[in-house]
Amino acid sequence: MLRARPLATFKPLVSRTYATAASPHALVYLEHRGGVIEPGSLSALTAAEKLGGQVTGLVVGSPEEVQQVLPKAQKLKGLTNLLHASSPSYEPPLPETVSPLLEKVLQGSSFTHVVSAHSASAKSLLPRVAAKLDVPAVSDITSVEHDRSTDSTTFTRPIYAGNAIATVRASSDIAPKFFTVRSTAFSAAPTDGAEVEAKSIDPVEISGARSEHIKTELTKSDRPELGAASRVVSGGRALKDAKTFNETLEPLADVLGAAIGASRAAVDAGYADNSLQVGQTGKVVAPELYIAVGISGAIQHLAGMKDSKLIVAINKDPDAPIFQVADAGLVADLFEAVPELVKKLKDQQ
Amino acid sequence: MRPTAARLLNILVPVKRRVRLTIDYAVKIRVNPDQKGVDLNVKHSMNPFDEIAVEEAVRLREKLKDEVKSIKVVTIGPAKAAETLRTGLAMGADSAIHVETPESSPPPEPLGVAKALRALIERQKDGVDLVILGKQAIDDDAGQTGQMLAGLLDWPQATFASKLVVDPTKKEANITQEIDGGLQEVKCKLPLIVTTDLRLNEPRYASLPNIMKAKKKPIEKLSPSDLGIDLTPRLETIKITEPPKRQGGGKVESVDELIAKLKEAGVVGR
């Protein structure tokens, strides 16, 4: 659909010539919220560029949203093309309404890869579309390499809560190759420095929709977004209750300009909202600094933070597993150590 | 009052037998030296998200009583996977289907599993109104099967559910989903695919009498060829390796030393 018809007609002939194996062309699903492209999509764009071919962005949303986001998407460095589709039914983008659009865009197209962030929304959408096109998908990749001569792509991805790394290859018979990208493994693509032309495509309206959006409730916070923050202060069950959790961690997060995270135990006990959960089944973070306060360090938690640059642990129990990964571990009562740390950090500013 | 034409709910719950990840860091997964896989000679149990799925199905029956006609648990895997089905039956499922694969065959991919489930659903004489799956298996961490099944069947899907309210008369369900940054509520028509998040419920322990009763519940055995499906993976696993080791274990004696470390790393006091 993006290429001129004559070329598509001759495609089988072209692909037989080794020297001119089809060059990769990725479609990146660009997510946005509040008129801003999601950081995870910027990392997905970087991963798509690593394939070494063209990269087309796709922006989907309501007409107002698309109008707002498009100028920003056009400036994204790394994009060679930009497609957009708008319809009131794309706000928010439910998988049932967006997948027919993606199918139409991909059907008979030259796209070799379909890429997105490993976000909740894209995780819901991409496998659905992949199944419709009868291809497997690769989740949460941490590296990607494309071999043009064999038209195969090799990925690495963590399995068993990050306790093993699988290297998998999608060969030429898998077309297009779907994958979602672990955002902490790829830097964000620059948001300016380019000016790519935007091309509108018609939305695909489905009749008799069997899913309907009722409402969305976002947790409001003035702090940096957990997934993208360069510093994270995280609390566990030892924080006692929601009030103590906030009263202990907020001053420390404030003085460091950090986002607040939580272990599953703290979330389950109701100390923190579940959107703050760090771990295998929550968010995966890899900030410059991760401070684990009163967190023992179950492997499910470590899966979500062990790629942090500097890990600090404050825990009463000297045998807590968190100390096995911490760069600086302080065995102390957090109710004394954290206020002292806050005070001394403040004095230095 | 005329009898309602609406069919009673039939619920299908796919479950997976998986290596139990213990919270004890010392007994973590070990990668085999041949880099072909991990050491599976360890304790197995039902995938935790699948336990939540079974629990939710059983709770639906407790709430909707006779309006839930059947709860079937399904697994695809080697002979030993039958244990997982017994667990599901002991929790309250009525019957089970075991699609048995040879011990030596590689674990099927989500797309293969989704196709097998589609074939199973099409075989059910009474139909299926609701499929509840875990949001991900904690071994491959793919998190794709539910969405793929919904795509293949062209059914609505509600992923990462933390609340599920089913209205059997209207044949619809309201689902609260965990999304990045908060919650989202959707309303979907049945038949529907739901994938469970951790917060959907707290799975029960099967009591001894229920475990005994579960032994008498029927398990239908099928093979992939009975379903006309091929579970051969299409992605090639080249190797499985250990993740890079972290040089941890550095302890400090005081808050001052901690601050010195932070300074040394350049994260404070720049």
UniProtKB/TrEMBL annotation, chain A:
Subcellular location: Mitochondrion matrix
GO biological process: fatty acid beta-oxidation using acyl-CoA dehydrogenase
SMART domains xref list: ETF
Gene Ontology molecular functions: electron transfer activity; flavin adenine dinucleotide binding
This protein's record includes keyword Hydrolase: no
Sites where the protein binds FAD: 237, 263-264, 277-281, 294-301, 315
Keywords associated with the record: Electron transport, FAD, Flavoprotein, Mitochondrion, Transit peptide, Transport
Pfam (any one): ETF
Cofactor comment: Binds 1 FAD per dimer.
Cellular component GO terms held in the UniProt record: mitochondrial matrix
Cofactor needs: FAD
Domain Electron transfer flavoprotein alpha/beta-subunit N-terminal: 26-217
Quaternary assembly: Heterodimer of an alpha and a beta subunit.
Family, as annotated: Belongs to the ETF alpha-subunit/FixB family.
Physiological role: The electron transfer flavoprotein serves as a specific electron acceptor for several dehydrogenases, including five acyl-CoA dehydrogenases, glutaryl-CoA and sarcosine dehydrogenase. It transfers the electrons to the main mitochondrial respiratory chain via ETF-ubiquinone oxidoreductase (ETF dehydrogenase).
Name of the protein in its database record: Probable electron transfer flavoprotein subunit alpha
UniProtKB/TrEMBL annotation, chain B:
Alphabetized UniProt keyword annotations: Electron transport, Mitochondrion, Transport
Source organism per UniProt: Phanerochaete carnosa (strain HHB-10118-sp) (White-rot fungus)
Subcellular location: Mitochondrion matrix
Subunit record text: Heterodimer of an alpha and a beta subunit.
Gene3D superfamilies given in the database record: HUPs
Record's protein name: Probable electron transfer flavoprotein subunit beta
Necessary cofactors: FAD; AMP
A single cellular component GO annotation: mitochondrial matrix
Domain Electron transfer flavoprotein alpha/beta-subunit N-terminal: residue ranges: 36-231
The family this protein is said to belong to: Belongs to the ETF beta-subunit/FixA family.
GO terms of molecular function: electron transfer activity
Location, primary (coarse class): mitochondrion
